[in-house]
Amino acid sequence: MTVSGFVLAFLTAASTPQTSRTTDAARTSAASREDAPLATRPPRAKDGLCGELPAKRLSWTARQGPLHLAGTVVVGPGATLVVQAGTEIRIAAFDSCPDPLAPADERGIALVVRGGVLRIEGTADKPVVFRPEAGSGGYAWNGIRVELAPRDEAATLRWTEIVRASKGVAFVASAGRLDHVVIEDCGIGVAALNGASPTVSHSVIHRSAISDIVSSRSAIRVASTLFLDGAGDGIRFDGVGLAEIRNSAFWGHRGTAIVRGPSGLGAWKGDSAPDRFGNWRTDPVLNGSESHAIRLRRAQDSLAGLPWYRPRRLPDPPAGHGRWTLSPFSPLVDRGASRRCSDPDGSPCDIGLWGGR
After folding, report:
1. β-strand 226-228 against 258-259: which pairing, if any?
2. Is the pLDDT at 32 greater than 60, yes or no?
3. What three-state secondary structure class fits 17?
4. Count of alpha carbons within 13 angstroms of residue 244, beta-carbon side
5. Residue 40: phi, psi to the nearest 5?
6. 179 found inside a domain
7. Is 144 a domain residue?
8. Which domain holds residue 68?
9. In whole angstroms, how far apart are CA 118 and each of 114, 152, 198, 212, 346?
10. DSSP state of 318
11. Could you say which of 22, 59, 295, 340 has the lowest number of CB atoms within 10 Å?
């Protein structure tokens, strides 16, 4: 079975059945009522987000939340949705507004960009979070889907967390940017399909069931990203196109780190050295991990044995806080795509969530 066939079979089985179709007339009628879906009027926290956005600029903010995604929301032509820092969006168990244009394997709640613009503007201290409501099981939604959008500006996600989606973010014949994004416990982390060309940088894809990334005849670009603890593969390619994977790290996958990648990609000579594109297959050594504790004890013992006139100083910790912070003993410190970015202190950027500006 091909990669795309396997993915289709899995996601068709995992998706929520579509129970009804919403006509344009029904949407227009709903918008005229006081109880119209939140997507068609200024949002209130008690409402559920649902339906197609009007052709104007709307903002979802932390002050309105937590917000509830009660059904599929479509960012259509003329619409711009800005999700501001600190906003939390909770995903309902059932889709109250099925998308009539969704393919069979995409039925279920999703945030769809189809002709409009999506800007998620989280910050390091106030990320935007998408997570299922309490009590829902499995892959509770279909994530963010960007369709037929050739420009990066159509979908930009910064400092965003996406949890338990069948596909965290899917690009279909589209471009877009993911910077400092965490995608966790999804079937597929990022899908690039039908000639898509998204860019992923300084992100973390964790515990994917099928693959962290699936790229089907597309030109995905990945830099300085962590791929961790996947039940399947790191990246699967079905036709590599102009794909580019640089200065990233793979660790803890049950499958293969890179499947059918461009020539030379993933050709590691050993786990302690990167391939020729700067990609690593090694423990990232996160701060607070057992690996960090072992290295810290070794460093302390080494310093204790120095003569009194030698300086005794541990390395400075890298920037960042929380569970995705690198240990100062990580092999990924200063190993990011140095020609393209630097850390706030002016040093070469680190691989991972906290690298880069």
Report:
1. unpaired
2. no
3. coil
4. 11
5. -100, 0
6. yes
7. yes
8. 3-186
9. 10, 10, 14, 23, 31
10. P
11. 340
Sequence-distant (6+) residues with CB within 8 A of 42 are none
Smallest CA-to-CA distance from 240 within 187, 272, 277 is with: 277
Domain-embedded: residue 125: yes
Question: For 222-277, what is each residue's pLDDT tens digit?
Answer: 999 999 999 999 999 998 878 999 999 999 999 999 999 988 899 888 888 999 99
| Dihedral in degrees, nearest 10, Cα atoms 174, 178, 183, 188 | 20
Rounded Cα–Cα distance for residues 130 and 185 (Å):
12
What would the DSSP string read from start to end of 32-87?
TSTT--GGGS---TTSEEEEEPPSSEEEE-GGG-SEEEEEEEEE-TT-EEEEETT-
- pLDDT, residue 340, reads 65
pLDDT tens for 47-98 read 578 999 999 999 999 999 799 999 999 999 999 999 999 999 999 988 988 9
Q: What is the pLDDT of residues 183-229, one digit of tens each?
A: 999 999 999 999 999 999 999 999 999 999 999 999 999 999 999 99
Which residues, 6+ apart, have CB-to-CB distance to 65 below 8 Å? 45, 87, 88, 89
- The structural domain count of the chain equals 1
**pTM for the whole thing?**
0.85
SS3 content of the chain, % helix, strand, coil (to 5): 15, 35, 55
Distance CA(69)–CA(88), nearest Å, equals 10
**Do 343 and 319 contact (CB within 8 A), yes or no?**
yes
Diameter over CA atoms, the chain: 82
Place of tokens 């950027």: 349
